[in-house]
Amino acid sequence: MLGASGDTDPPPTEDQRPQGRIRSLLVIGWCFLLGILVVASIIFIRMLLLRADAPLVPEDASDYPQGMAQESLIPEHEVSPVTQEPAAGDSPPEDPLDTEGPGAPSYQPPPSPPKGILGFVIDDAGNNLKELEPFLRFPGPLTIAVLPGLPYSVEAARRIRASGKELFLHQPMEALGGQNPGPGAIYAGMPADTIRAVVKANLAEIGPVAGMNNHQGSKITMDSQAMETILRICHEQGIYFLDSRTIADTVVPDVAKRLGIPIEERDVFIDNIQEKSAMIQYVQEGLRKAAWKGSAVLIGHAWSPELAALLDDLYPELVKQGYSFATISRLIQDPSK
After folding, report:
1. Cα-flanking dihedrals φ and ψ of residue 169, to 5°?
2. What does DSSP say about strands 264-265 and 240-243: parallel, antiparallel, or unpaired?
3. How many whole angstroms from its chain centre is CA 35?
4. Is 272 helix (H, G, I), strand (E, B) or coil?
5. What predicted TM-score, i.e. pTM, was given to this entire model?
6. Taking the domains of the chain in order of start, what are their residue ranges?
7. Is domain 116-333 annotated with CATH 3.20.20.150?
8. pLDDT, tens only, 80-118
9. pLDDT band at 67 (very low <50, low <70, confident <90, very high)
């Protein structure tokens, strides 16, 4: 009988079967834990290697927290000049590579993004050469408009061209209030031929010019027929027109659009009040408009006693903040503004 031959192992007892299963589970468990330890070790080593290769500082301004790399606008209601001493703790960190003394490269903060284009215009030149001179030394682009028929109109125009500034004819036009616009003016009711003769005579005296803008002129800039004649003259002469917007009901933009002639419009008068604090606030208004719509035209006057010095003071700070400066003709030519 097979059971009596002794050639086969006796079947396992009930006590031996659970012990085999426990041994199998222990082996599987140890293998699982060993796998987890191996994977964790690999992840840990990789993190150490990545951390060792990471840069110590951000590579560009986009890596800084939002707003950290940008200069702010001139603060609202600021009544002191824009240039200010840095507050405590605002100075840049020392460059750890700067070991060569004063001649070593200094820390340079990330550049600010462009905030808008500013077109500054100085009206009423021609009365006085002394008041004109400081504007001719302005370090940035500037458009200066000369009145015709005054004692220094021709010489003022010559000096403006020689300085490299942009020259406009400041064309006198009749105002609603009856003020005297001065020599070479355009009056309501003038026929087109007379307007042409007046404007061409003024251009011959002041020119060559890059463009013209209106002196006073609230009554004329409300007259579609007169403004069509004036804009056609500008187009024929290859010069630009700036609407000084001496009245809100100006028709110049509508007439220019109908004729397909590009123009510019004034955004802010800087020196309606001849106080430094007030002029700074008007400049701030221009900055807000430039940041919002891409550019702004700010008009001041040659006879403002503190305007030239104020613009000189503001110029480097505005450039640092990300604003750029342009002549009026450049603003009209630039389709991206």
Report:
1. -85, 125
2. parallel
3. 60
4. coil
5. 0.67
6. 116-333
7. no
8. 333 333 344 444 433 333 333 444 444 454 455 568 999
9. very low
